[in-house]
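Q&A log
Question type: sequence-to-structure
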Amino acid sequence: MGLFLHYREIQAQSEADRLLREYWLKETFLHWEWWLMLALTIIPWIIWWKIVDRKRLFEILTYGFFVMMISIILDAVGVEFDLWDYRHRIVPFFDVFVTYDMAVMPVIYMVIYQFFNGWKSFIIASILVSAVFAFISEPLLVWMDLYLLINWSYFYSFPIYFAIALAFKYVMIKLIKISARGL
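Response status: OK
Response body:
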């Protein structure tokens, strides 16, 4: 009985994946949404590369990769638990919003990390960016029909955006101290 149910789960998942790829080819690929997502995936990295402090490149990139990884994980959890979904994806292979998780968020957070060194200025900048993400960017993505809220509210997103920025700044400070001691 268990093997039969597992086989049916695999069949159902395969069919869902096939339908997603079919939808992506017909409704997203090379449409304006796809071009927008492609631009928002590439352009932030180009701008970041022009302004990044190369003397702190490893440190800033490490911070950005921490942000990227937690963003991908939290996004995948949200999609899996039907808190939100995405009508369009840059590639049909990931359930997460690659454009935000791998470009927009980490790049903007890295810029804040680079330019706002003190805790007070970092906190203020992080609050502002968290508010923009939660209360301007997310509603705009919903309006553009890229992002679908299912069991979620913009108000839930704000503290998460803020906590991500603060938590990883704290982690980076600790890692830098450990590295300086040679431990």
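Response note: The mean pLDDT is 93.
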